Structure formats: structure tokens, C-alpha cells
Amino acid sequence: MTVLDTALDPRTPGYPEARNATLDRLDRLEAAIEEARAGGGERAVTRHHARGKLLPRERIEMLVDQDAPFLELSPVAGWGTEFPVGAGVVTGIGVVEAVECVIIATDPTVEGTAVNPYAVEKIRRAARIASTDRLPLVNLVESAAESPGAGTPPGGGIARDLSRLSTRRVPTISVVFGPTSGDTAYLPALSDYTIMVRGHAKMLTHPRPRPGTNGSDVRKTPTAPADQLAEDERDALRLARQCVRRLNWRKCGPAPRTSPPGEPKYDAEDLLALAGPSTLFDPREVLARLLDGSEFDEFKPAVGAAVLAGWGELHGYPIGVLATSDGPQTAVDTQKAVHFIQLANATDTSLLLFRRDDAGTLGSGAVDALAHSTVPLLSLNTGRTGDPRFAFSWPADGPAASDDDGVIDPRDTRTVLGLCLSAVHSAAVEGAGHVGAFRPGKVDQ
């Protein structure tokens, strides 16, 4: 392994300004996250607590293992739109009984979640992550007591995504804390295991229009029996943990190659400046603050200057890195990227794709190679290019991005990517070379 040597001097012109600009963006992001955590507002939260009920993040905290991390996805979805920040639903990945699970928790203090397109997309995205990465799905479900449009017939997308989980033998568990309606009613209806809180849980049917109601009334009729009845919310979460424990779940992907992993040799604080606006950085400077031991074996360093590729480890997991830097890309750059993607598939190695906001994008040949690639792909600042398992971005001016899984603090990048690598290894890590999608080796452009 080659150790990267990319020390940065905070006194370098532009460094303080870029760092401060990123901190300002993070302040705005934190304000939006606090707004999402507030749910339907102080009055709705107080009323909910007065009924002896827990908020979605409180339910998640009681569900996951003590001191285990919870990676929340798209926490500020809907920011800058007519819909509530966070979209009235919390999604993410948490560890339950030592098993990594996708968790969906609807917020009953937020009205209108059933007709909120951001809520529907968050739920569908979470279901797709569970399916692709072979992660058990745990739904913590309750709708607002009087949710506008709660009886609106669903589009069926959630039902299709949940059905795919069943065909791929990925277990689904639902805990119903109160009435459910709209698209969220599909979560318990299509789950393998359903736990309902006695006296509170109701799975509502979609309405038949009644005279004088304009079709807005909902018949409060349970649609399916519970597999288990809980006495209260805490008992329900205990039963959910017990259910996950009895899954006898095992990962199909390999464990980390190095344990414990070596820490990067450079401070993650520098990423605040590297993520700042108008900062011209070498991708190697970012990798030196992400990869284990700051070690990186560059691939074809003498050719294709607009594309950086190479191998390293992140939290002990082998990873191939493909980054675009400034400058126009040539056919040589594309050939280099395609060859590297092929080699990652031939060696069953996950890929990380990242770029700075104003850097060039991959050539069409490389994008096509990513489309045929089957090893896990993580992306940073690239949106959904290549259909990644997880996609994150650093804070930028304007509304939060809606084409990724969340805006993250640059200093948390290594931790977030490490959690994602662990999650994707719940499924088998197999390259396209195994199924004949393309053969490893050099290609002509």
C-alpha cells in the first residue's frame, strides 16, 4: 500500500473561508433537521405524549441495541416545499439484536403523510434498500388521528416494493401502534410478522364514498389479525426485538478484511475546507482522510489525468475508488474508468464514486459499465449515477438535494460510508464477471 501524503496548512489562502462557508451550510442543515425532529409541532407532540405514546425517534431508540448507531436517511426530505420537513416519516438503518435492519417509522404528529409524495418516496427507497442489500425491514407504523386525505387510494408502488422483499426472502416485521391509513396501511398488511398494540392499533380500509362526505370518510375497520398483541408500546418494541432475534439472520458477504482498521493519518476536520465552495482540491486529499491508514494504491497513475482510480480499505472493507477531478475527460479517461470497474467486478470489490460539485462527470462508456456492474456502489456528490446502493452529498447552497439519501457533515463521511459498507455486506458481494454481464480486461473506445 502507498501512504498518501497530503497534509494541509490551515493558514493556506482560501482555507479559512472555505471552512467557514461549509460551517454556515451545516448550521442551516442542522436547523432543518431540528424542524424535522419537531414533527407536527409542540402542541401535537405534547398531545401525543399525553396519551402515553412515543415519538418515532423515541420508538427507534428503544428498538435498536443500546449504544448502536442509527443512520438516518434523507432526514430533511421535503425541505423548501409545501410538505413538512422530513415528510412525516423517519427511515434509516439500525442494529437490532446484532442484526442490521432497515427501519421505517411514521410520525403520527404530522398530518397529511398519506398524501405526501416525499413520504411515499422515502418509504419506497427504504424498501428498495432492504431488498437490494438483504436487510430485514422493521416498520413502526401509526398514522395521524385525522390525516387529510388519509383515505386516498394508494398508487401501488409501496405494495410492489414490499412484495419484492417477500420474493427475495427478506423478512419484514411491522409494529402497529395506532390507526394506519393510506399507503402506510400496506406496511403491516404485507409484512411477515405483525405486532399490534392492544386497544390502539387499527388497520383502516380505504373508504367507500358516503352521501355528503365527498369520499373523504374512512371506515375504521381492522383488515387483518395480529400475529402478536402487545400490552403497550414498550411491550410491542420488546416483541419486535424478540422477533428479529428469532430470525437467525446471517450475513452473506465477507467480514472486514482488517480488524481493527487503522485510522486515517490526517484530521477529518480538513474536510470542512475541502468541501467548501470554490475549493480546488485533489481527490487524494479527501481519500487521505477517509481510507484506513490513508493508504491508497493508485490504478494507472500515468494515464487519464481527469479520472482518479485505485484501491484501499475503509473500516476494514476492501474498496475501489473512482473519482473525477477538474478538466475535460478524454477517451483515455473513459477507458481507464471502464477497465477499473471491470476489475472491481472481477475481484468482488465494492466501489466508491465521488466528485466535487463542479468537477466533470464520467464518460458515457463508464456510466454504461456502472450500469452492468453488480458489486455494491456507494456515491458521494454524484446523485444516483450508476444506481448506487447508497448516495450522499456534502452541504451545498440552496435546498437539500432530493436525489440522494441525505446531506451529511463532511467530517462524518468515513463513519457513514463504513456503516453503509457493513450494511451492503449483508448480501453477497459478487461482481458481474460471475454472471457474464461483461468480462474483465481492457476495452477499446
From TrEMBL:
Q: Using the record's annotation, list all stretches that form the CoA carboxyltransferase N-terminal domain.
A: 22-205
Disordered: annotated span: 204-232
User: Which InterPro entries does the entry link to?
Assistant: AcCoA_carboxyl_beta, ClpP/crotonase-like_dom_sf, COA_CT_N, MCCB/AccD1-like
What the entry lists under Pfam families is as follows:
Carboxyl_trans
Task: Show the SUPFAM superfamilies listed in the entry.
Answer: ClpP/crotonase (SSF52096)
- Family matches, as PANTHER family: ACETYL, PROPIONYL, PYRUVATE, AND GLUTACONYL CARBOXYLASE-RELATED, METHYLCROTONOYL-COA CARBOXYLASE
Q: What is this protein called?
A: Acetyl-CoA carboxylase carboxyltransferase subunit
Organism taxonomic ancestry: Bacteria, Bacillati, Actinomycetota, Actinomycetes, Micromonosporales
